[in-house]
Amino acid sequence: MRDPMTVSTGQTYDLSSIEPWIAAGNTTYPVTCAPLLDSALIPNHTLHRLIQSWCIANRRSGVERITTPKQPADPSRVCALLS
Q1: 8 contacts 28 by C-beta, under 8 angstroms
Q2: Among 1, 2, 35, 68, which is 20 to 30 Å from 21 by CA?
Q3: GO terms for molecular function, please (predicted)?
């Protein structure tokens, strides 16, 4: 897992897995089978930091540190903040 995202059910998925699932038009979450009522993806910063710490602790075994992803700005939110 490189970019953990939490969905409205509280379940965390990797962004590279959940984005295509939602984009494919699925109407439920893959693990819980709960209805997909909200497709908002919230970065799970705590889990990301834990993954980074584990990568750093295991770098002697050849594990590479994952980078901190930059979240794209939502244009509508930027406009709302500026107005």
Answers
A1: no
A2: 68
A3: ubiquitin protein ligase activity
**Amino acid (1-letter code) at residue 79:** C
Q: Six-digit token pair at 43? A: 């970065």
Beta-strand runs (E) in the chain? 4-6, 12-14, 42-43
Distance separating alpha carbons of residues 24 and 42, to the nearest angstrom? 19
Task: Provide the token pair at 27.
Answer: 């109407």
pLDDT digit string (tens) for 1-18? Answer: 889 999 988 899 999 999
DSSP 28-48: B-TTT--B------EE-HHHH
Model confidence at 69: pLDDT above 70: no
- C-alpha span between 47 and 82 (Å, rounded): 31
Q: Which of 71, 69, 70, 57 is nearest to 2 (CA)?
A: 69
